[in-house]
C-alpha cells in the first residue's frame, strides 16, 4: 500500500509540474528526498542542457524537370553502365559523410528507377 501511495504522489507531482510548466529545483529536490528513484528527477540538470537542432526539408512527389531530362538523355544515349554516377552532383556528393553518401546514392537510384519505369510505361502505352 505504501508503494502505491508513493507512486500516486509522484504522479500527481509530475502532473502539477506539467500543468504549471514548472521544473524548479526545490520541487525536484523535495521529491527526491521523499524517496523517489526516478532517473528523470535525479538527472534534471543534465536533461535541461539538452537541446535539439532541427532542419526542415521540402518533400514533393514529382521529380524536377532537370533530373527527368538527364535521365531521358541517358536512356536515349544508351548509357546503361553506371547511370547513377552520371546523375549525381559531384559538389554535393563530395561534401557528405559516408552515411549521407549512402543515403544520397540510394535516393538517387530510387529516383532514377521511378523515372525510368514511368518512361517505359509511357512507351508501352504509346505502342498499344
Please provide a written account of the structure.
There is one protein chain. The chain is an all-alpha fold and 128 residues long. The protein folds into two domains: 2-49, no CATH class; 65-127. 70% of the residues lie in helices and 0% in strands. It contains eight helices and no strands. It has helices spanning 2-20, 25-33, 39-42, 44-49, 65-76, 83-87, 90-94, 98-127. The longest helix is centred in the C-terminal third of the chain and has 30 residues, at 98-127.
Keywords:
mainly alpha; elongated; 128 residues
Mind telling me the C-alpha Rg? 28 Å
Pick out the low-confidence regions.
none
Structural class designation? mainly alpha
The biggest sheet, with number of strands, parallel, antiparallel or mixed sense and barrel status, is: none
Portion of residues in beta strands equals under 5%
Counted beta strands:
0
Shape: elongated
> What is the chain-wise order of helices and strands?
HHHHHHHH
The total number of structural domains is 2
| Overall pLDDT metric | 75
| N- to C-terminal distance | 78 Å
* Helix percent band: over 70%
Instruction: Give the helix tally.
Output: 8
Amino acid at each position: 500500500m505504501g508503494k502505491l501511495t508513493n507512486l500516486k504522489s509522484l504522479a500527481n507531482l509530475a502532473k502539477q509540474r506539467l500543468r504549471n510548466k514548472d521544473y524548479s529545483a526545490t520541487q525536484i529536490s523535495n521529491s527526491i528526498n521523499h524517496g523517489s528513484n526516478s532517473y528523470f528527477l535525479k538527472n534534471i540538470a543534465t536533461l535541461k542542457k539538452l537541446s535539439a537542432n532541427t532542419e526542415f526539408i521540402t518533400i514533393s512527389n514529382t521529380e524536377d524537370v532537370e533530373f527527368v531530362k538527364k535521365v531521358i538523355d541517358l536512356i536515349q544515349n544508351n548509357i546503361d553502365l553506371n547511370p547513377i554516377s552520371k546523375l549525381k552532383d559531384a559538389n554535393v556528393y563530395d561534401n557528405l559523410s559516408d552515411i549521407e553518401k549512402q543515403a544520397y546514392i540510394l535516393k538517387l537510384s530510387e529516383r532514377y528507377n521511378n523515372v525510368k519505369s514511368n518512361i517505359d510505361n509511357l512507351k508501352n502505352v504509346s505502342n498499344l
